[in-house]
Design brief:
heterodimer; A: alpha/beta; seven-stranded antiparallel β-sheet; B: alpha+beta; three-stranded antiparallel β-sheet; 3 helices
Chain lengths: 356, 100
């Protein structure tokens, strides 16, 4: 069995509000040579506006969800559709695609789609969630952020935020939207749609799962996290990382953390508040591990931790961003540090036992 | 087991981390850390043949595989909410640290 069959298939979510330009971006993405082995799942087949040529080109790789909204039927249709597609791939009925792009409806909350992956062992075994790409248009995006929670959640869970229609909105409006996006989701990369044209494939192919692009990805997170820590230390202005009830916060620790204590705390937090923890992203300094540990996830779905060879900024300390909805950042910080002390308490005892 | 490819054991959890997690010493350490928290809920965890046993004070027990399964089972066994953001629980951990 070669890598093609052994490696999990990357699934990218392409989300964005009604009329934001998801389908235009998808059309450009599918023309990229690096994405030629991509299967596409859409759920408003008759309305998405993909041109006829494209539909023919991907005909064998398109699975149409029968019922309207993906998010309402997620546990049944999406899982079944993905596994059906996987089965066809295994039987050679469709080309051996390496990637699936799921385009959500404009009003979809993307988080239940993520939850489906977290909940199902079969999906987790065969697929892994790659970048979530959120399209937001510069002209109407600000108003949509004000009015629609779905829009705020789409931004909060994105790894890449593609700002479209900048020619209509103009530079001032675009800049204001970019600032709001950075406040909601500090670790996401923001790309204007013109830039996306030049390097569209990288929106999907450059992610933290790829060893070659992982250091750059994490370096960007750390820059955002350090800026948040700096802001927190100079609280003479309003909290810029608060947006409605969505709030980005950074947890930091100078001393190495105990992995067991971290796992206990985060799994407890996600069990009780997983629907309110929209993103987790960061680099951990763990006792006994020479290399920094990358942790990231969306809601209940935490990816298997991976290591970096070295600290991207030569600062061996933990920095972890959480984007939460309706949770108290101060309580999260207190809870995190209280649980990390449990690891410190237990460690000497165990070391004494094991050395006896 | 995965019905598509017949692979067993596909329910691994992120908190298992790397291979280091499977060593006996690391598992003992995990149990020790967890028990410092679980005591507040009248629960205890023990290592058993590569799995864990979660036990109440009255002797009811459940076998679990990882920390991901720990908290849903802890809430079922006790009928209580296990919330790391509960102020009383955090205060208790802070007090515990202060008296050490």
């Amino acid at each position: 069995m070669n890598d093609l069959w052994a490696a999990p298939i990357t699934v990218n979510l392409l989300t964005g509000f009604l009329g934001s330009g998801k389908t235009s971006l998808l059309r450009r993405l599918l023309r990229q040579p690096d994405l030629s082995d991509t299967a596409v799942m859409i759920n408003e087949f008759g309305e998405v506006g993909l041109d006829h040529l494209l539909l023919e080109a991907v005909d064998e790789e398109v699975v149409l969800l029968d019922s309207g909204c993906v998010c309402c039927t997620i546990r049944g249709d999406l899982k079944d559709a993905l596994l059906r597609l996987y089965g066809r791939r295994q039987r050679g009925e469709v080309p051996p695609f390496r990637r699936v792009v799921i385009e959500t409806t404009g009003l979809a909350d993307p988080t239940p789609i993520v939850a489906t992956f977290a909940a199902d062992p079969m999906l987790k075994h065969h697929f892994r969630l790659g970048n979530v790409v959120t399209v937001i248009d510069a002209e109407c995006g600000g108003a949509n952020l004000d009015c629609y929670e779905e829009c705020r959640k789409q931004v909060a869970v994105g790894d890449r935020l593609v700002v479209s229609k900048i020619d209509i909105a103009g530079p001032g409006k675009t800049a204001r939207l970019r600032a709001r996006l950075a406040a909601i989701n500090p670790t996401a990369e923001i790309i204007e749609s013109g830039e996306a044209d030049d390097a569209a494939a990288a929106l999907l192919t450059h992610d933290v799962h790829d060893e070659t692009t992982r250091p750059d990805e994490v370096r960007r997170w750390l820059m955002a996290e350090d800026a948040m820590i700096h802001d927190h230390d100079h609280q003479d202005h309003e909290d810029r990382n608060r947006h409605g009830d969505i709030r980005a916060l950074v947890l930091s620790a100078d001393k190495p953390l105990d992995w067991a204590a971290f796992g206990l705390w985060l799994s407890m937090l996600l069990n009780r508040h997983g629907r309110k923890v929209l993103r987790v992203k960061g680099l951990l300094n763990i006792v006994g591990r020479g290399a920094p540990v990358v942790v990231q996830g969306v809601q209940h779905l935490i990816h298997k931790p991976v290591h970096l060879e070295r600290w991207p900024d030569n600062q061996a300390r933990t920095r972890l961003v959480l984007i939460v909805r309706g949770l108290d950042p101060g309580l999260i910080d207190r809870s995190f540090h209280a649980f990390m002390r449990l690891g410190v308490e237990a460690r000497p005892l165990q070391e004494a036992v094991s050395s006896a | 087991m995965c019905a598509l490819c017949g692979v067993f054991g596909v329910a691994e959890h992120w908190s298992d981390g790397s291979a280091q997690a499977s060593t006996g010493a690391e598992r003992q350490h995990r149990v020790a850390v967890a028990n410092r928290c679980l005591a507040a809920y009248g629960l205890s965890l023990s290592d058993w043949a590569g799995r864990y046993i979660l036990t109440t004070r009255t002797g009811a027990s459940k076998i679990i595989d990882n920390f991901g399964a720990l908290w849903p089972e802890a809430e079922r066994l006790t009928g209580r909410v296990c919330d790391p953001l509960d102020r009383d629980s955090i205060n208790a951990l802070d007090v515990r640290a202060a008296v050490r």
